[in-house]
Structures are given as structure tokens and as C-alpha cells.
Design brief:
- By secondary structure, the protein is mainly α.
- Among the domains are: about 35 residues, CD2-Gal4; about 180 residues, no CATH class.
- It contains 21 helices and no strands.
- It is globular, with a radius of gyration of 23 Å.
- It is found in: Nucleus.
- Keywords: DNA-binding, Nucleus, Transcription, Transcription regulation.
């Protein structure tokens, strides 16, 4: 009788160690704090059923000492011979953070699953050849692990963060000396560090500094990028982040529109379609956020002035409103189309917020009802819920029903419980503050930055 071949788990194969094949976690993985994954395992999570309704919650899965779903089993091209990828992967805790990024942390950055996630199939290969991207990626992974599980890896996390910052300073100097080939590494690193700060609550405003640095780098970097897939990935990641910036600012004198149009044009001209980093099927809606914010605030200022609103500003709002209202998501499955509709609805609400007399009219009430209905159809476990901070904060000032307010807080609370993101917790507190103060509600499109001032903090609603 032929002897049955011993398969062993993936981490033991990577480390060329003997595996005792104990499941769900072998002795070696338990001892070295590794994710014990098996090539032939069935998924541990059920696929999303688009027919499900209402608020969906599930007890949080324990990642440590639990096999990854089959869709997250590491690509051996990425994970074979880890020491050949980077010498620091010989350290068990660093190796764990690397595996955790693939299995869990990367999913918090994208609405796409598994191999469709560009943070896996574009960023991780980039990290294998770039130490600075590697360090930033591990630092982000450690922050997500600490939020969702424990601070057992905090020291390792912040060691990688410190290495990323030191490398960033050094490579920025080289970049200034016209070594433009380093630009894509710098942009990817800065965007990763920005995401780290946002998810970590960013109490010191570091995310805004990273974004400012990114804006200085992007035009020269993307102009020299020869990889269409990487170009589309970075442009979309940048577009999403920059589009949401005006919401956090009271003044809007910064020429953000030009930078947004630049990134959007790259997506239009790029031979590879948008990768679905965060925009999904709705980059046009993200491109419109900044413009709608400017128009809505200008109209609000004119409505509160004795002279009243100008015909020019009213026409500009009408043109934007018609454009947003007539937009249709393309090449999207049902769930991604719904999240696109959430942003579309929030944009329409933002454009109506300029006029206080529309807060109780039929048009506004229909929009609010539609948004609540969309939320009830998007399970909290969906990957798309990572991008709901902006639309919920934008719509919140106009929600008058205590029932709807309670549902939004319940929904956002479930998202907070799932991801433990700092910016989600800040958004939850922001909504409660807005609903408790009529003076903030009456500020229309200025409501969010004024509420942030009242909270004593400013953060990106990513």
C-alpha cells in the first residue's frame, strides 16, 4: 500500500520545518505565533448572499491560531522562501505581520476580495523589491492587528514604522536629486502611512502631512511610471484619499480640484481599468465630492447673505445635481453598485444642504429614505463598509427621525466593532455630537468641520 504523502501547513513549508499536521493549528505555528493555513482547506466564512436584508453582524473571528479562508491561502509565488523576499522575515513576529497583511489587513484597505485585491497582487510584489514599502506595509499590518486583537506585536509594529519613516527621509533626499525611479515607492509608502494614521485615529494630524507630501510627489512620479497597472492603482488610491479632504476643512482655498482632475485623468487615460482600491465602480462620484463641497458651501454663504443666492451659483448646483442624479455605476456587481449608490445619494444630500429650507422637503426626505434602505441591504460584514465614514457623516445632519438616527448609530457601531478603526470611532462620536447640537445641524455643508472643531480634532473621513 503506497504511503500517504505528508502535506503539512503552508508556514511550515515556507520555513522548511517538519509539521505535525495538527489542525486547526500545528504545534510549530502555535509556538511561533503564525497563521496556520492549509492549501486544501475549505473556506471558514460563507460567501455573501446578496438577498440578505437588514443589519448583519457576526462575532469577531479570532485570526491568531486559526486557519485562513481558502480564498486567502497565500500565493506561493509571494510566500515561498520568505528569507529570499526580505531577511527580516526570518523573525517570527515580522513573518506573522507579513502573513497577517495578506490574510487580513490588506482586506481593510480594499473593497475587493482575495486575488482581486490590488494591495495583494500589486502592492505585495512591490514590497518584495522595495524595503521602504515593505516596512510601511508591516507597520500598517501591525496597527490593524493591534486594533482587532492585542498589542502583543506593538514593539515590532512601531519598529517597522520607525524604519519606514527613516527610509522615507533618506529616499526623499535621493528623489530631490532627480532619482525619479524611486517616486512610485515613495507615493505607495506615503499612502500606506496615511492609511495607518487614519485607522489609528490620527490625533496629531499626521495623515494630513502625509497627504501634503503625496501631493508634492504625485505629478512627477506618475508621469514617469511605466507600469500601467501600478499607475492605475496609485492614481485611484490617491484620488479616493484626496477627494475626501475638503470635508475636513473649513476653508477651501487650496487648489485641490486640479490634483483630483489630474489623478482622474490618469484613470481615464490608463490602459488598465481602475483596480477597485476603494473607489470601486464609482471614481466619477469620488471626483465630484470636492467640487460639490465647494459649490454647496458657496451657495450656503450666499443663502445666508442679504443679497441671496446668485443665478450663476444656483445653475452650477443644478448642473452638478443633474449629473450626479443621472450617473449609473458600470461594470459592478450588486453589492458594489449599492455602495456606489450610497455615495451618489450622499452627494445629492450635500448639494441640497446649502439651502436650509430644503431640509424638510420631499426631495430631501426621499434621499434619506433611500440611503437608509441601501444600508439595510449592505451587510456589515461586507468589505464595502470600510468606506462608509464620509457618506454617513455627510447625510447625518439632515436625519431627523430618531429611529433612523438609532439605526445609523447601530450600523456604524457594528462597523466599529468589526474593524476597530480609529476614524470609524471618531465618525460615530461626530454623529452623536451633531445630533445633540442644533447649532451644528444648521451649519449645512460646514457642519462636519465645525463639529470636528467642537470635538477638538480633525481627521480624514476615509
Amino acid at each position: 500500500m503506497p504511503r500517504q504523502q505528508c502535506k503539512g501547513c503552508i508556514p511550515c513549508k515556507m520555513r522548511r520545518k517538519k509539521c505535525d499536521e495538527r489542525k486547526p493549528t500545528c504545534v510549530a505555528c502555535a509556538r511561533n505565533v503564525l497563521i496556520c493555513a492549509w492549501e486544501s482547506e475549505s473556506p471558514t466564512s460563507k460567501p455573501y448572499n446578496s438577498g440578505r436584508k437588514g443589519l448583519t453582524t457576526k462575532s469577531q473571528r479570532q485570526v491568531l491560531h486559526q486557519p485562513a479562508p481558502k480564498s486567502m491561502v497565500p500565493d506561493m509565488a509571494l510566500f515561498a522562501a520568505p528569507n529570499a523576499i526580505h531577511p527580516q522575515l526570518s523573525h517570527p513576529k515580522t513573518n506573522f505581520l507579513y502573513s497577517f497583511f495578506y490574510a487580513r489587513a490588506a482586506q481593510t484597505l480594499s473593497i475587493k476580495d482575495g486575488k482581486g485585491n490590488p494591495f495583494v497582487h500589486i502592492l505585495m510584489p512591490m514590497a518584495a523589491t522595495s524595503d521602504i514599502v515593505f516596512q510601511a506595509m508591516l507597520a500598517f499590518s501591525g496597527v490593524i492587528y493591534g486594533q482587532q486583537h492585542s498589542d502583543a506585536l506593538a514593539t515590532t509594529t512601531w519598529e517597522h514604522y520607525a524604519q519606514a519613516i527613516r527610509s522615507l527621509k533618506h529616499k526623499l533626499t535621493l528623489y530631490v536629486d532627480d532619482q525619479v525611479n524611486r517616486g512610485t515607492e515613495l507615493v505607495a509608502t506615503v499612502l500606506l502611512l496615511l492609511s495607518l494614521e487614519v485607522s489609528n485615529a490620527d490625533s496629531d494630524g499626521n495623515a494630513f502631512r502625509h497627504l501634503r507630501a503625496c501631493r508634492e510627489l504625485v505629478s512627477g512620479t506618475l508621469a514617469h511610471c511605466q507600469n500601467p497597472q501600478l499607475l492605475g492603482f496609485l492614481a485611484e488610491f490617491y484620488l479616493y484619499t484626496l477627494s475626501l479632504l475638503p470635508t475636513s476643512l473649513v476653508e477651501h482655498s487650496d487648489p485641490i480640484e486640479e490634483d483630483i482632475d489630474f489623478a482622474f485623468q490618469i484613470l481615464l487615460d490608463n490602459s488598465v481599468p481602475a483596480t477597485g482600491v476603494l473607489c470601486g465602480c464609482a471614481p466619477e462620484m469620488f471626483r465630484t465630492i470636492s467640487k460639490a463641497t465647494v459649490v454647496s458651501r458657496r451657495l450656503y454663504d450666499e443663502f445666508t447673505d442679504e443679497a441671496g443666492p446668485s443665478v450663476e451659483c444656483l445653475q452650477e448646483r443644478l448642473g452638478l445635481y443633474d449629473y450626479v442624479q443621472s450617473w449609473m455605476p458600470e461594470r459592478a456587481d450588486e453589492e458594489n453598485a449599492m455602495i456606489a449608490r450610497v455615495y451618489q445619494t450622499a452627494l445629492l444630500v450635500l448639494l441640497l444642504q446649502a439651502d436650509s429650507e430644503t431640509s424638510d422637503n420631499t426631495m430631501m426626505n426621499e434621499l434619506l429614505t433611500n440611503l437608509i434602505s441601501l444600508l439595510r441591504m449592505i451587510p456589515v460584514e461586507s468589505n464595502t463598509t470600510t468606506v462608509l465614514a464620509w457618506p454617513l457623516a455627510t447625510v447625518a445632519p439632515c436625519v431627523k427621525s430618531s429611529t433612523d438616527q438609532a439605526f445609523i448609530l447601530q450600523y456604524l457601531g457594528a462597523v466599529v466593532h468589526k474593524y476597530r478603526f480609529g476614524n470609524h470611532r471618531q465618525t460615530e462620536q461626530l454623529l452623536q455630537l451633531i445630533w445633540s447640537r442644533r447649532d451644528l445641524q444648521e451649519r449645512g455643508p460646514y457642519c462636519i468641520p465645525r463639529a470636528m472643531e467642537a470635538q477638538g480634532c480633525r481627521f480624514l473621513l476615509c
